Amino acid sequence: MKTIIPDFDRPVHRQSTDAVKYDARASMFGSDTVQPLWVADMDLPVPLFLQDALVKRIQHPCYGYTMQSKVLKEAVQWWMGEEHECRINAEEILFSPSVVTTMCNGISACTGKGEGVALFSPVYERFYSSILNQKRKLINIPLLLDKGRYTINFAAFEQACRVGKIKMVLFCNPQNPSGRVWSAEELSELVRICRKYEIFLLADEIHSDIIYPPNNHTSMLAIDGAEKWTILAHSIGKTFNCSGLQPSFVLIPDHRLRRRFYKVTDKTHTGDISIPAKTAIQTLFSKEGQQYKKALIHYLAGNRDFLSERIARMRQLSMMLPESTFLAWLDFRETGLAHDAIRRKLVDAAGLGLSDGLAYGPAGEGWFRLNFAVARTELEKAVKKLEMTFG
Predict the structure, then answer these.
(1) Which pLDDT does position 205 carry in this prediction?
(2) Of 216, 246, 219, 240, nearest to 231 (Cα)?
(3) Does domain 63-286 have CATH number 3.40.640.10?
(4) Scanning 36, 203, 210, 381, which has its CA 20 to 30 A from the CA of 93?
(5) How far apart are CA 246 and CA 270, in angstroms?
(6) Yes or no: is domain 20-47+288-390 CATH 3.90.1150.10?
(7) pTM of the model
């Protein structure tokens, strides 16, 4: 059966739906009229077959406690095998309301108060808060910027491990905010160091289903030797634009590490997901879901290339070409303006609400993140505003 693909060119109106991206603009930017291109969810419609499945389930008159069924876990196994060449056993699959919940529980399971947890910056802001809110020591290893592309400073990371500062590392695979797809060789080196110094590794792979050709995603669990030390966090939230359902899952091959993690989720009562989330995973991790994803990536690639071509014409701006995600990491440093002045100019002159680069750490100074998962006409409006203000 051929999957009906939504019309991505048709703008979706989300105002007054309690969408953070829209209804929190006044508190975030001091204006409720900026064009919001910040929060990492899409202004693109979910597939109709998902809506149909949710409606069918909701029409049943009881919403009581539900099991983590065999069918649910088989859907995860099928998707990870088909899409990521990652073969997993059913007992290795756990569930979580969100990747950030998994991150917090992983830190709690693997480290004690005051122990070091590393990250590579710039990176999604919740990496920082997840470490600091649990009173762990944050070890920041800045990424190296080489010819407009981030690389990992393995020497700095291994030195921090060597002196005993690090107990765990949080790793974004692919990278947010840059959209960098890490190679199997890079991941292998990371795992080598973690194994050598017995460092736990939490891999956030929430963006791993949106990859632009010719790039290929390598799952952390596909790396030899990673199984004993790795907690893999994933979700259908980004790929299928349903983070509000809180539909996340966790893969932990090692039974000892899985038991440590389970003890935390049992204590915090965060080891299950809702009925709509279970329905969504079972529905989307399917042949129909693959067809939707293929069409989505094709559309997003067109948006990415359109944005890149127009940014390349501007004198004051540049952009890292994302190899994954629907997020563009824009460099405003050539404007010569201070970071706060850039932010105010984006809001007041351009009327744009972008994610502030400093939220991703000190390395984000002079940078802002733009979400291009919108109808093409909406992206064209945003680009014209950038050209008029910074061109």
Answers:
(1) 98
(2) 219
(3) yes
(4) 210
(5) 11
(6) yes
(7) 0.96
